[in-house]
Design a protein that fits this description.
By secondary structure, this protein is of the alpha/beta class. β1 and β2 form a beta hairpin.
Length: about 280
C-alpha cells in the first residue's frame, strides 16, 4: 500500500477487504498440538490442579515451557481452574498475646487427625493421617473400618522407630487422642502432647489443610469397591503427594522428591500423554 502512497485503511475499504488480510498470520509453534495434548492429559489425571501446577509437572516431564504459554492454552481449551482455598485465621492465643506452638524444624511438631469415607457398599472406613508440620510431608495414612486408641499407639510406634520421636504431637480432643493410654505412652517415649482448643479445628491447620487436599483431589472423585483397594489407591496418592505433587509454598516443587540412583541418566523429554501409563487412575 505504501508503495503507491495509499493508506491501508482506505485501500481495504475501497476493495472491500478486512484490514487483517494485509497482515502476516501467526503460524504458531510446531509443538503446540503435542503440548496441548499433554496439558489436557495432565488436567484429566489431576482434575483439581491449576495451570501453575500443570506447568511444574510439564517441566518435570521435560518440557521447556513458561507458565504464560500454559495459561494461554489452558484458557483456550476451556479448562477449569480450581476454586481458591478459603482463608484461615492465624494460630493466635485466645487473648491475642502470642502465636501458638509453631514448627521450627523437621520432627519438631507432628499433627494427626481422622478422616472418614465410604466404600461402594456404603460401609464407612476411617483414615488416620499424620503430618510433619514443618516439612508438610504426610508420614502415614492408616486405613481401617475402625481405629481405636490402641491403633493410634501402634501407628505412632512404627513411625517413631523409622523417623525418631518428635518434640510435640498436635491433635484435637477426640476420644482416641485424649485417651489415658495414648497420653501416657506419648509422655513415656519422650514426646509431648499439644491439644487444640475444643471446637477450633483451624488450630490444627496443617493437618486440616492436608485433609482437605486428600478429599478434594482423591476421595471426592474415587469409588472404592473394597477396603483393600482403598488402601492401595490412597497410599499411591500419598506417595505422589510427597514426591511428585508440585506445592505452591515451595515454588511448585515436591515436598520430598524421589531420590534418583547415581549416576543418573541424562534427562530426556517425555510426554505425559504417552508415558507413565501405569500412573493413570483407574476409571470406574
Amino acid at each position: 500500500m505504501k508503495k503507491y502512497g495509499v493508506k491501508e485503511r482506505l485501500a481495504c475499504r475501497v476493495l472491500g477487504q478486512h484490514r487483517s488480510t494485509q497482515r502476516k498470520a501467526p503460524k504458531g509453534r510446531s509443538d503446540d498440538a503435542a503440548l496441548t495434548a499433554d496439558i489436557i492429559e495432565l488436567a484429566t489425571q489431576h482434575g483439581r490442579y491449576g495451570y501453575r501446577r500443570i506447568t511444574a509437572l510439564l517441566r518435570e516431564a521435560g518440557w521447556l515451557v513458561n507458565v504464560k504459554r500454559v495459561e494461554r492454552i489452558w484458557r483456550q481449551e476451556g479448562l477449569k481452574v480450581p476454586a481458591k482455598q478459603p482463608k484461615r485465621g492465624r494460630l493466635w492465643l485466645n487473648d491475642g498475646s502470642c502465636v501458638r506452638l509453631r514448627p521450627e524444624r523437621p520432627n519438631h511438631v507432628w499433627s494427626y487427625d481422622f478422616v472418614e469415607d465410604r466404600t461402594h457398599n456404603g460401609r464407612k472406613f476411617r483414615m488416620l493421617n499424620i503430618v510433619d508440620e514443618f516439612t508438610r510431608e504426610c508420614l502415614c495414612i492408616r486405613i481401617d473400618r475402625k481405629l481405636k486408641s490402641s491403633d493410634v499407639i501402634d501407628v505412632l510406634s512404627d513411625l517413631f522407630i523409622l523417623r525418631g520421636v518428635p518434640g510435640h504431637i498436635r491433635s484435637d480432643n477426640g476420644p482416641e487422642f485424649i485417651a489415658k493410654a495414648v497420653r501416657e505412652w506419648i509422655t513415656a517415649v519422650g514426646a509431648r502432647t499439644a491439644f487444640i482448643e475444643p471446637g477450633s479445628p483451624w488450630e490444627n491447620g496443617y493437618c486440616e489443610s492436608f485433609n482437605s487436599k486428600l478429599r478434594d483431589e482423591l476421595l471426592n472423585g474415587e469409588i472404592f469397591y473394597s477396603l483393600a483397594e482403598a488402601r492401595i489407591v490412597i497410599e499411591g496418592w500419598r506417595q505422589h503427594y510427597n514426591t511428585r505433587r508440585p506445592h505452591s509454598a515451595l515454588s511448585y516443587k515436591p515436598l520430598a522428591p524421589a531420590v534418583v540412583p547415581w549416576p543418573a541418566a541424562p534427562p530426556q523429554p517425555a510426554s505425559p500423554a504417552t508415558s507413565n501409563v501405569a500412573d493413570k487412575p483407574t476409571m470406574h
